[in-house]
Each structure stands twice: as structure tokens, then as C-alpha cells.
């Protein structure tokens, strides 16, 4: 019996750093079996951007190697399906929160990392994840939407914007409805400016309530190709 490969915890220090312009080809989707499609590598800009172009993102627990995931099925929100409840319309109309974009990306991703999630023993947003996405933010690819209340960050979300797709990563709330206000404001703004879809990764009741719908992974990968999602479309400011 062949020995199982051993992996380091988190990013592999021996794996080469891939700059923003470098493309890393993951194995052909036809050979994917299950949600985890690759193991190892690091969270350098070229690796992360290559993953999003191919419908993949990093998602792993502390102590694990970097696990590259492409869930089947996938949750997506389209412009005509975005749902804003009556109660949220009232909150947004009353401007209960001051909505800002990219004002405090570090605070937002740190808030997501510190958010308690029932059924989870800890956070998957490790320091390595924070460092990797902070660099993507500095390069113009990763963005945050924030809901401020009385001068304090009350909630928000972050993700990666590439061409006509926004790949949502995580959200948090310190005050009721703060994350929803931030996310819905971001979604409305992006859709008004021609965004084709928001990738919500894994379906949850929270996301489905805002218009998320489930599709097979093969359809999601086709959606990426149809919209020519790649870094050839330069990063933009929100």
C-alpha cells in the first residue's frame, strides 16, 4: 500500500510565491470528485486569483493544509433575483446604518474571523487567510462593504471582485441586520453597474432569503466561462 502524502499545516512554505500576473492551472474539473479539488500550495496573489478564475476558493480549518474547494452544488444570486425584505427596505430607507465600501477592510475581515458561528468550533479565517486577502485588497481585487453605527463598525462582508462576478467570502454582525444592510447595499450597487452574478459559495437559509439559488457545479463553471471571468479585466475601485 502506498504511503499517504503528508501535508504541512496551512500554506506550504516550500511552494513558490505566485505574483498577481501568474496563472496556476488546477486540474481539469472533469476529474473533480467531491468538494475538495486540491490540497496544498499557498495564498499568494497568483494562487488565489487563479483559483477564483477556475471556480475554486480556499476553505480549511486551523491545523489543516490549504484545502481548495469547489462546492457542488453552488449558491448564486442573479440581479433579477436579489430579494430585499420589507423590513430590510425600511432599515435601508431610514439609513439606520452608514454604509461604506473599502473603508476598513482589515476591520471587516477581522470581524468575520471573530464571529461566533453555531456548530463550528472555531474560525476558518486564520491569520494566513487574513494576510492573503489583505494583499489582494491592496492590489485592488478584494473588497469590503461595511455598516457603521454611531461611528463604529457594526457589521459587513468581504469578497473578491473579478470582472462581472463578485465572489462573496464571509460576513459578520455586531448589531442586528448590519451584515444584511452592508451586503444588500453592495449587491445593489454592483448589479446597477453591470455585475452578472454574486457567488455565495455554499447555500444557507440566510443567503437563500436574499435571493440565492442553487445550481450544479458544472453550471457554475459554465457561468464563469460565459461571462469570461478572468483577471484580464483589471481590478476596479468601489
Report on the structure:
This protein has about 240 residues and is an alpha+beta fold. Helices cover about 30% and strands about 20% of the residues. The chain has helices spanning about 45-55, 85-95, 105-115, 125-140, 180-190, 205-210, 215-225, and strands at about 35-40, 55-60, 65-70, 75, 100, 140-150, 150-160, 165-175, 195-200, 215. It has a 7-stranded mixed beta sheet with strand order 5-6-7-8-9-4-10, sandwiched between helices. A 3-stranded antiparallel beta sheet has the order 1-3-2. The termini are far apart.
Q: What would the keywords be for this entry?
A:
7 helices; 238 residues; 29% helix; alpha+beta; 22% strand; three-stranded antiparallel β-sheet
Structural class: alpha+beta
Average pLDDT, all residues: 93
Number of strands: 10
Shape: globular
Q: Identify the strand order in the major beta sheet.
A: 5-6-7-8-9-4-10
Order of helices and strands: EHEEEHEHHEEEHEHEH
How much strand content do the residues show?
Answer: 15-25%
The amount of helix comes to 25-40%
Rg over C-alpha atoms, rounded to the nearest angstrom: 18 Å
Discrete helix count: 7
Q: Biggest β-sheet, characterized?
A: 7 strands, mixed
